[in-house]
Amino acid sequence: MSRWKKRFQVFREIGPAAFVTAAFIGPGTLTTCTLAGASWGYSLLWGLLFSVIATMVLQEMASRLGIIGRMGLGEAITSSFSNPVWKVAAVTLVILAIGIGNAAYQTGNITGASIGLEAVTGVVSAGKGPVLIRIWPSVTGLFAFLLLLTGSYKIIERILVTLVIIMSITFITTAIMVKPDILPIAKGFLMPRIPAGSAVMLIGLIGTTVVPYNLFLHASAAKEKWKTRDDIYKSRTDSVVAIGIGGIISSAIVITSSVAFFGTRKEIAGVADLGEQLEPLLGPVAKYFMAAGIFSAGVSSAVTAPLAAAYAITGVLRLSSDMKATGFRLIWIAVLITGVVFATFGLRPVRMILMAQFANGLLLPILAIFLLKVMNNNNILGPDKNGRFTNILGLLIILITFLLGLKSIFSVTGLLA
Asked: Which CATH class is domain 2-413?
């Protein structure tokens, strides 16, 4: 009995990895999963499975760095460079990819949450009237602002865990209610194949899950929550459960979209269309299920994106990473305001997004290589450094992230359609 009680206590410690799940289950991921299911059915589910495992491996390393090394990834990066030129280059790349990039992507997060609010309330914020023109981005931004302003890790963690639970209930329940065929789903997970024309979408599915800024976010969040070597087991359980839930949510969207759209040749713009198409199957409740899920995804990402940017930039600039520190707050406020302004006026920061994609294409494999190097540093981690099996997994993931990086760079430079 005491053993089960102990296991239950471990699950109550779940938190930092929920930041990761809340971050990658955003409007962009939901849209990508919707389009993947609509266009290729269950064929690309194996790519999601790979990406979830890769995320678990990398995020477990980041969490261990925070717990044992007592530093965020940004601090570890700058402390590893003695050459000032390389140090400046590393700092610049992180600021471009994580700071400016998250400010650009924040537009999509705010917009996604606004779509959910519009669906629930019936008030369209993009109307022509001067009062109703895009009011929901400001409402969403204010919510995120007040939550981040508390400067309380525990409060933010609880809210994000709640949002992840709402997304889980929403999308998993919907996937069950549409009554999909289990055997084709199992084949999709266990039999890798790349149908003609699906390569870019496959890379997109992986790229929306394995993201650079989550490494900064997780290391710093783990450092905040856990203090001793004994907490490593809790951290690993946290990573497996929370990130696994994120993978289930993404898979549920692919499955639901496949049931609703695959083979119908209906054109869809994203997950917002999914609720309407599910109404014949689920009735009026479909609209509200999707609205709740989209809103939760948008808000959770709207909170974690500024937070990750603040952790990353304060880390590489060697500023205080205390949530109540002035510099920390100024960074997340700048990211949040940028997203709200662009979403409010319907702007699309295309140039910023392209620059961020280019920088992320460079940063993702570099970060993975650096993280693997740090995790084998005996001076930082001692007996808790990586073992051989973890290193092999890490090298495999680096290869994949390198290919993802090339895809991102080629897309931006026009070499790949």
From this structure: mainly alpha
